[in-house]
């Protein structure tokens, strides 16, 4: 088992001390170098401090029995940080973070539910046009790499690889955008001319330029979540109940059988939970085609994204080779049973995925589908947040409407970038829960005022008292 040497560094806006693993080596993956380093994406700018006047007085409520609804990337990372990164906030409120008892409710097993189980695992900070980075890029990447490093101590196999990612310029405008981007971020991006693309990637479309994201990584998301769960279990303060929660009010309360704190991390299923249909998420199912090349020589070494992606099996799970090609964007998809997003696959799904993906994949890698056998699909539903001027920013907030002895929090809207954003926001959310202070969550993420409506009976009682 790997035992990383730990040292203390400061990363978040409030200068909270957290421990980060020193750079750590894991066995090489079959085709990608898997050396892990926190400093791979070292921040170039100083972190912004939150002015003291912006930090509100904490709530009276102190968390003790915490329920997390949904154990995907959002829920699992929140659990990890509640267990491990909240000591200083608990101490300030005269209790110990080791008093926290956590229960994750999820009908699926760790690493097998929701969009997280279908994620291709691509980790990089750039927008599709490459000229900008997405919201909170460096804090997010560092937090993800840190958490993967922690989880690595509970896994024998590498959980992350650094093969880089290639993005092809399929038209002139893209070429110009990539040229500007390579000039702007020379440490991270390399512009490749058409002859270089042809030499290095002969199986891809020819006569196009490309940009290479030198530091981009791929996370084996299901294996990472399973390892993170094993790590959380070491605390002996957490349990997993394979059970769906359809109404938060059934588990939130002050009696001994209830939870005083509930954190809702059910991804695309959130609008189906009683009282939460108003959460402004746009749902979009994504399917991947799982391909097996017929010829051994037809090998993809480097993940490619150009509208769609083609990602080789860097972690060597499948005998022979597997390529994950995706993903569809199905905005009109209606799920009969939203808890089982990844399980409902049938020929109709594969046909739909093939119909949507065949041409765009051909534009990237001509003949890819013809040279492979489609041996299945995987799917998940993205929960897309409302777009802001800074792009897609996930939703993390405290829900109003609970009494003063309980609290309810929501973490969703990770959209298409959950691997990137989950760990940073989970840490901030865990701090906010234990400090009883929503303002520890980045202001952009808590921009929405959402409530958990009281039941009709409680509403009547509240009105009488009011
Ligand atoms: C095909 C595809 C490819 C993707 N590729 C990438 C990528 O390469 N890089 C990237 O950064 N992001 C990617 N994403 C996005 C990423 O997967 C999501 O942003 C992320 O997984 C969302 O995590 P989550 O925890 O919020 O939700 P989910 O992963 O959906 O987790 C929700 C959990 O809640 C459980 N649940 C549902 N209903 C209930 C209930 N009523 N009670 C209790 N539990 C419940 C589910 O079983 C599930 O485990 C991809 C998404 C898809 C669909």
Automatic annotation (TrEMBL):
Question: What superkingdom does the record give?
Answer: Eukaryota
**InterPro entries in alphabetical order:** FAD-dep_OxRdtase, FAD/NAD-bd_sf
* Alphabetical list of SUPFAM superfamilies matching this protein: FAD/NAD(P)-binding domain (SSF51905)
Q: Where is the FAD dependent oxidoreductase domain?
A: 65-431
Q: Which GO terms describe its cellular component?
A: cytoplasm
Which residues does UniProt assign to the signal peptide?
none
Output the Pfam families linked to this UniProt entry. DAO (PF01266)
Q: Which protein, by its recorded name, is this?
A: Putative oxidoreductase YurR
Native organism is Gracilariopsis chorda
The root-end lineage is: Eukaryota, Rhodophyta, Florideophyceae, Rhodymeniophycidae, Gracilariales
